[in-house]
Specification:
- The complex is a heterodimer of chains A (324) and B (375).
- In chain A, helix 3 runs antiparallel to helix 9.
- Chain A has 324 residues and is an all-alpha fold.
- Chain A has one domain: ABC transporter involved in vitamin B12 uptake, BtuC.
- The two termini of chain B are 27 Å apart.
- In chain B, helix 1 crosses helix 16.
- Chain B is mainly α and 375 residues long.
- In chain B, strand 1 and strand 2 form a beta hairpin.
- The chains are: A mainly alpha (324), B mainly alpha (375).
């Protein structure tokens, strides 16, 4: 039993650290789709957020040698969110004002982000990896880490970003379901013409939706880079797409999204820690097989949940105020 | 001179296809200008000579660089064709990368292991790649047709599955431990160079360009001249309407993805059945599949347009190989491509600009002539 407990104390923080950025980016996807715009550029926005935040962190640790690493991380997360917002503006402009195909414009953003990150890193450093290698993990949160059960799970080997993400997720549930703005956002995704007839500015609301997704995905990218990657190399390996799949399998509902994110984090845990799992490590399967797992699981989950999709009805359609 | 100008504008204005083509050209110009601006920021002194070299890439070294333009264009024409073909059926094949990876892996596997095939070796390798791509394309097609899963999400997931599968197979079966990289296909599996070596001496051109043109012709005939192609386009316009008209829209969706996947698979064979190129096994998606999206858009999803756009990409890529001379990183080409895709997403807007511009000019002159006539 004791062995089991220590094993759980080992894996639960890892699941949590996988789950937080995944849920955050999926939440970003929720904002934009609820407002009626599909944004598969989450991946590219994450790359932009991750790149700029890690680059900023590199500069900050150089300028202020004594600065606490957690403050650097906090600033990095904010810069990631800011860059994500600015970058997603291009997608918002194309898909809202220009009524263009939202998938094509988002694909352009995805390609641009990786090319830009690699190009800039190579122009500055000569190679694609950024030289930021600090550990951003918090070993133990003072006082709280000594609470039984909760302490070892939530307050040891934790990341600052996880706590911020929990706050944002809670706030978002209030915004989406308890405020006027949330109601307007959802109405623009279901029936924008009806919303406009009641005096809602559909363009403005959709801009808010897309920019919110940009901010969250940008911050998610920063959190991803600070959590998983020692030297960021201009790639988040489909994490943004995975978040999109989490949102779809979560049927566009925050609580279900959390549950699905938990499931996927477990899959990612299997993928990265397969050799430390009792039972699995004796099978001696190639590690790539486990790495495929999250993606294969997505396919299977989607195949069983998409038949009766609960997507916002107007998501993906350019707004045409004259349409009946 | 002015007369010629208005006449050309009139001629463009009369056909929607020509307006679309003009907006494609505008997207390309915008992308190139963005690239130039970026080069000016990074290194103002070398920007103009570097930029000039990029856009005149195929003519830098005479026939050699011209041949290389065709060489670089081949896989892109094929992936562009794959994306365009799916587009016509209303499907967005963002999974060309995964299909290409599976095709390349199959081609290399056959190329390394099946030496007993003799002169048919490379043909079988290409056919194997085609089959693998088709199977990989069938999965999102089936899921879309029967389980209503959006093909974009599934094919993205399959890209990553293909990437890890590729790594796994290479590490376990195709690894050349002495050179510490993917084993190389046998000489009999290499794509034949034919007489092309004499026309374009020193270039890397091979039979691939003929294979690409062959697929362009096939898809053009399929889409324009056959009932099946008509059904595919009808399914693309409206799934429900085509079902009411008695078409088997589910079968059409699956077949469109199978064909698109097969073409991408061939692209994979074209890329790696070549001396000196090794199938990568790192966790990196092969970018040619994504570039195909840009090429399909620029080519207006028509096979012949895709061929022209693919050759343009080949020229750009050949130009990019000289960029190191000017101390620029070659990723700038990828940035330019991304910006071109973005502007082709704005094509509706660009078309409107073209249309109003033409209308203004031609109406101004036509208004005058009408007045003369009424008098």
């Amino acid at each position: 039993m004791n062995e089991f407990a220590s094993f759980m104390y080992y894996i639960l923080p890892i699941i949590l650290m996988n789950m937080a950025p995944l849920a955050l980016v999926a939440l970003g996807g929720l904002y934009t789709e609820k407002s009626g715009v599909i944004n598969i550029a989450l991946e590219g926005i994450m790359v932009m957020g991750a790149f700029t935040s890690v680059y900023a962190a590199t500069l900050f640790t150089g300028w202020f040698a004594g600065m606490s690493i957690q403050i650097v991380v906090l600033i990095g997360l904010l810069i990631g969110a800011l860059l994500g917002t600015i970058f997603s503006l291009t997608h918002a402009f194309a898909s809202i004002h220009m009524k263009s195909n939202q998938i094509i414009s988002a694909t352009a953003l995805n390609l641009f982000a990786v090319a830009f990150a690699v190009f800039t890193a190579r122009t500055i450093y000569g190679h694609r990896r950024l030289p930021f290698t600090e550990t951003t993990m918090i070993r133990e949160v003072p006082f709280l880490s000594s609470v039984p059960i909760i302490g070892p799970v939530f307050f040891t080997n934790a990341y600052l970003s996880t706590y911020i993400i929990v706050l944002i997720f809670a706030a978002s549930m209030v915004i989406l379901y308890k405020t006027k703005l949330g109601l307007r956002l959802r109405s623009c995704g279901e029936h924008p013409q009806a919303a406009e007839s009641l005096g809602v500015n559909v363009y403005k609301i959709r801009y808010i939706g897309v920019l919110a997704s940009g901010a969250l995905a940008g911050m998610g990218g920063a959190a991803y880079a600070f959590t998983f990657q020692r030297q960021f190399g201009g790639e988040v390996f489909g994490f943004g797409f995975l978040a999109l799949a989490v949102m779809i399998s979560g049927q566009w509902r925050p609580m279900r999204i959390l549950l699905v994110a938990l499931f996927f984090s477990f899959m990612r845990l299997l993928a990265t820690q397969s050799d430390s799992f009792p039972g699995l490590n004796q099978l001696n399967l190639p590690s790539q097989l486990y790495r495929m797992l999250p993606y294969v699981a997505t396919l299977v989950v989607l195949a069983f949940t998409s038949k009766k999709s609960q997507a916002p009805r107007a998501a993906g359609e350019p707004y045409d105020s004259g349409k009946r | 001179m002015k007369d010629l100008w208005t006449k050309t504008l009139e001629r463009i204005g009369r056909s929607p296809t020509r307006i679309e083509a003009t907006s494609s050209v505008m997207a390309i110009v915008c992308g190139l200008l963005f690239g130039l601006a970026l080069m000016l920021i990074v290194n103002p002194l070398e920007a103009f000579p570097g930029f000039f070299t990029v856009i005149t890439g195929p003519f830098q070294e005479g026939l050699r660089s011209l041949g290389n333009m065709f060489y670089f264009g081949v896989p892109i024409i094929l992936t562009g064709l794959s994306v365009a073909f799916a587009f016509r059926t209303g499907l967005f094949n963002i999974g060309a990368t995964g299909q290409l990876t599976m095709g390349a892996l199959t081609a290399v596997y056959i190329g390394v292991n099946w030496g007993f095939l003799g002169p048919f070796h490379w043909v079988v390798a290409v056919l194997g790649a085609m089959l693998a791509g088709a199977l990989w394309g069938a999965i999102p097609g089936l899921l879309k047709a029967f389980r209503n899963v959006h093909e974009v999400v599934t094919s993205i997931m399959l890209n990553y599955v293909a990437m890890y599968f590729n790594t796994m197979i290479i590490m376990n079966f195709l690894y050349d431990f002495q050179a510490s990289r993917t084993a190389h296909p046998l000489p009999s599996a290499r794509l034949p160079v034919l007489f092309l070596q004499n026309i374009f001496p020193g270039s890397r051109i091979n039979i691939g360009i003929f294979i690409a043109v062959f697929f362009v012709a096939i898809t053009h005939i399929l889409l324009k001249k056959t009932t099946f192609g008509y059904e595919l386009k009808a399914t693309g316009f409206s799934r429900d309407a085509s079902r009411y008209a008695g078409m088997n829209e589910k079968r059409n969706i699956v077949l469109a993805m199978v064909i698109a996947g097969a073409i991408s698979g061939v692209a994979g064979a074209m890329m790696y059945l070549i001396p000196g190129r090794h199938l990568p096994y790192e966790t990196i998606l092969i970018t040619e599949g994504f570039t195909g999206i840009a090429i399909a858009l620029l080519g207006l999803s028509a096979p012949i347009g895709v061929m022209l756009a693919g050759l343009f990409y080949g020229a750009l890529h050949q130009g990019g190989t000289y960029l190191q001379l000017y101390d620029f990183r070659p990723e700038i080409i990828d940035i330019i491509i991304a910006v071109i895709i973005y502007f082709s997403a704005l094509s509706l807007f660009l078309q409107k600009i073209v249309k109003t511009f033409i209308d203004k000019r031609t109406k101004a002159s036509m208004g005058l002539s009408e007045e003369v006539e009424t008098r």
